[in-house]
Amino acid sequence: MSSETKRRLSRLRRRLRQRLGVAFRGPQLDILLSALDKRAGLVREPSCEDYLRWIEPGDRFDKEVEHLLPWVTNHESFFYRHAEQVATFRRVSLEPFLSESRGRPFRVWSAGCAHGEEPYTIAIEIVEALDREPRWPIEILATDLDPQAIDRARRGLYDARAVRALPRRFLGRYFLAEPRGLRIAPSLSERVTFEPHNLLSETPRPEGPFDVIFCRNVLIYFGAAEVNRALDHLVSQLVPGGILMLGPVESLRGRLEDLSSSLQIELDGEVAYYRRRVSGSQAEGRRRGSGGSSEVSDIEQLVVTDRLSEALGRLEAAIARQPRSAEHRLLRSSVFRRLGRYEAGARDCVAVIRDHPLHAEAHRCLSELRTRQGRWDEAMAFSRRTLYLDPEDASAWLLFGDLLEHRRDFQAATRAWMNAHELLECASGRETLPERRRVVLDLLASCQDRLRPDRSRRASDGRALS
Ligand SMILES: C[S@@+](CC[C@H](N)C(=O)[O-])C[C@H]1O[C@@H](n2cnc3c(N)ncnc32)[C@H](O)[C@@H]1O
Questions:
Q1: Residue 183: Cβ-neighbour burial (10 angstroms; 0-12, 13-18, 19+)
Q2: For burial by CB atoms within 10 Å, which of 11, 265, 284, 362 has the most?
Q3: Using CB atoms within 10 A of its CB, is residue 267 exposed (0-12), middle (13-18) or buried (19+)?
Q4: Would you say residue 454 has pLDDT above 80?
Q5: pLDDT-based confidence at residue 291 (cuts at 50, 70, 90)
Q6: Is residue 237 within 8 Å of 208, Cβ to Cβ?
Q7: DSSP E strands, 37-154
């Protein structure tokens, strides 16, 4: 590619990023290049280079973007995708709303709705909850950047793949079998309004506020600045107390501090979602310790030098004075673990989680203790939550990998250990305090040990792992 073409390509990427939010790096860039090739053929430009030159004028770019959209955006979706989240939506939003019967419509927005599978799933849930009461006022707005996707959603015609996770009993109730596929029944389609809409630049029509906003698997493709813009916009469209559902891998952790005056994270079993605060005064902020008090460091010193009963005595006194101190309780839990008193250690973690439900470290410590007790399912659940709350916790990835290995999911275990490895390598470069650096290097060594090829061979041979 000539340097001129490279410049054109980066201009195009910049303009697309402004328009769509997508940064087009790595695999996304390959998708873009293949779209450019296809489009060049269709407009009879001999090559991708020629097409890049041809597309440059402003008005042509605006028109061409519409044609590129279906190729450069991922419309993957299906009915009852992330079914646990759908159940959470029912439990924490729909049912409480209906039981309080607030005398106003229940309003939901599905932002980035692709071909309509998500908003129709929501519609099924609502209609079922209403026991098919036709008059109850509900409004479901479904929007997507791509007008062609919106047209398809309005047509409501699906193939078998789209309904693969749909509970079978809904098939006859909400779909009509046609020669070309399964068509959404009018009782459902009339409940959903579809409109083209760009999350980055426009207010949806009809406007909010909404009781629930689903924006799943959309922000994952955005650059950081665009995620921020879209989130501010989404939050502004929620009623106080309203709920934002993102995709399961779209953690807001990096943004939670900025957003903590307007949003709080909540957990329903393993599903995390965000609730708009009723008033800013409830802001919790982050609860991580800022390095620890000198008393805590003194006790840590006792632990490091194996003076465990002395440490325990000091911790008992400190906890009696400050029963809600997460730092003291977690330290005591680690002493209990060293003493093999796993249940006592777990009680401390549970107390911390009760007082500070989003304390990632408490979740990790509890997962470690449950692992030692052989309570694997609980260990796995707490490990997942830890990573949701803090995806940059290398020890948590390490532990998660071990739990996956125990489940004999060796590929996923390796991926988890690789994540830990990457985080630890970065941390070892940053860490200047010798003691902390030693901890990081120890963890790195155990990570490398797990990633040794003979370990995975042993694993797939079916022999027991340590
Ligand atoms: C992977 S689909 C997600 C569909 C559905 N939410 C789900 O989780 O199954 C992502 C959708 O986001 C849409 N999208 C991408 N950028 C957008 C933007 N800036 N504004 C609105 N929608 C956008 C895409 O067109 C695509 O249909």
A1: middle
A2: 362
A3: middle
A4: no
A5: very low
A6: yes
A7: 106-111, 138-144
**pLDDT, tens only, 126-141:** 999 887 555 678 899 9
Pocket of ligand 1 (CB under 6 A): 20-21, 73-77, 81, 112-114, 118, 144-146, 149, 198-200, 216-218, 247
- The pLDDT assigned to 71 comes to 87
Mutate which of 89, 117, 144 to test ligand 1's pocket (most atoms within 8 Å of Cβ)?
Answer: 144
What are the start-end ranges of the H helices in 356-464?
Answer: 360-372, 376-389, 394-406, 410-430, 434-450, 453-461
Average the pLDDT over 259-275 and give the result: 83
Peptide bond into 46 cis (omega under 30): no
What is the structure's pLDDT at 462?
A: 44
The band of 60, judged by pLDDT with boundaries at 50, 70 and 90, is confident
Strand order in the sheet with 175-178: 157-158, 181-184, 175-178
Quote the ligand 1 centre to 376 CA distance (angstroms): 36
Q: In one letter, which amino acid is 174?
A: Y
| One-letter identity of residue 98 | L
256 C-alpha vs ligand 1 centroid, how far in Å? 22
- Quote the pTM value: 0.65
CATH class of 287-375: mainly alpha
**Residue 317 in contact with residue 289, Cβ under 8 Å?**
no
**pLDDT band per the 50, 70, 90 thresholds, residue 465:** very low
Element (H, E) at 122: helix 117-129
Question: Can you tell me the distance from the alpha carbon of 37 to that of 46, in angstroms, rounded to the nearest whole number?
Answer: 9
Name the phi and psi angles at 364, rounded to 5: -65, -45
Peptide bond preceding 206: is omega within 30 degrees of 0, i.e. cis?
A: yes
Domain covering 83-282 assigned CATH 3.40.50.150 in the classification: yes
